[in-house]
Amino acid sequence: MSEQARPRRILGTHDAAYFDALKELISSQSRATLMDWAIGYAEANYLPIFEARFPEDRRPRIAIETARRFTVYNEISAKNIRFISQNAHASARAVADDPIAQAAARACALASSTVYELGHTLGVAYYGAAAVAYDQVGLNADEETYESLAAAEVTKYLQALEAVAVADVEEPSEIEWHL
């Protein structure tokens, strides 16, 4: 990527084998499992990237923490989470000059929005892959490097779901993938 080219906002391709495996496992899991996994993964892996660059902006953290309170205590409405998630997206727009922080903020915003839209679990992977890859090698690497790092990150995300996946879920999530 040349110095003047703008990095892609997301990394990974929807027709990659690692995304097929991820979509298949996501579709077999319950809403509770998916929310907990996406929120926890973003909190552990993408929020630190954002906060290292913009520690004063708490909107992605607030979105993650609020979504966590919903999943654990069911004390917040999904409507309120939507508003808080939108604030985390606003944070991403505010840091548009920093693609690393922007991708991390979007991953956190999407993780929090799994409370009302389980399909966003896939968006967490796309933006999270960009955040991790750009954080690791910067913004001027070649496409092959980025694709390799994206594949590795999405595989880690998939492995995290495999670690908490429940076999034979009675009511698996029903997600229509619009890719």
Report on this structure.
- The model has no long low-confidence stretch (mean pLDDT 90).
- The longest helix is centred in the C-terminal third of the chain and has 22 residues, at 143-164.
- By secondary structure, the protein is mainly alpha-helical.
- Helix 4 packs parallel to helix 6, helix 5 (78-94) packs antiparallel against helix 6 and helix 6 (99-113) packs antiparallel against helix 7 (120-137).
- 40% of the residues are buried.
- It contains eight helices and no strands.
Question: Which key terms come to mind for this protein?
Answer:
179 residues; mainly alpha; 8 helices; 67% helix
Low-pLDDT stretches:
none
Shape: globular
The termini sit apart by: 26 Å
Q: Main beta sheet: strand number and arrangement? A: none
Which structural class fits the helix and strand makeup? Answer: mainly alpha
Extended strand count? 0
Number of helices: 8
Total count of domains: 1
Beta-strand percent range: under 5%
* Average pLDDT metric: 90
- What is the succession of H and E elements? HHHHHHHH
Rg for CA atoms: 16 Å
Quaternary organisation: single chain
Give a brief outline of the structure.
With 179 residues, this protein is an all-alpha fold.
Question: What is the topological layout?
Answer:
Layout: H1 17-27, H2 31-45, H3 47-53, H4 59-73, H5 78-94, H6 99-113, H7 120-137, H8 143-164
Helix pairs in contact: 1-8, 2-4, 2-6, 2-7, 2-8, 3-6, 4-5, 4-6, 5-6, 6-7, 7-8
